[in-house]
Amino acid sequence: MNSAIVAITIDIGYEGEVMDLLCADQTVHECYMVYGVYDIIAKVHAEGEDGLHLAIRSIREMRGVRSTLTLVVCREHKK
After folding, report:
1. How far is CA 40 from CA 30, 32, 57, in A?
2. Cα–Cα distance between 60 and 65 in angstroms, integer?
3. What is the C-alpha to C-alpha distance for residues 63 and 14, in angstroms, rounded to an integer?
4. What torsion, rounded to 10 degrees, do the Cα atoms 2, 5, 16, 27 define?
């Protein structure tokens, strides 16, 4: 299982629509609306690099998404 953190910048007025789409996406396991440089932070899980690529590509193609910054997780540590 591959994971990535995706920081997303949204066009004004599309925040709710994009959040709804992300919450409905089975590859998105966590999703947060935040203040700052980015508008939404999403944690994505997918099978293999190809699956991760497709998941991130689908986020980038959502209406209202202006830009993304993807951080591929190399190791996860849980408290």
Report:
1. 10, 6, 16
2. 6
3. 8
4. 0
φ and ψ at residue 31, rounded to 5 degrees: -150, 130
Estimate to the nearest angstrom the gap between the alpha carbon of 58 and the chain centroid. Answer: 9
Q: State pTM to two decimals.
A: 0.92
Sign of torsion over alpha carbons 7, 12, 18, 20: positive
List pLDDT tens digits, range 12-67: 999 999 999 999 999 999 999 999 999 999 999 999 999 999 999 999 999 999 99
CATH code at 2-67: 3.30.70.920
Residue with tokens 């990535």: 4
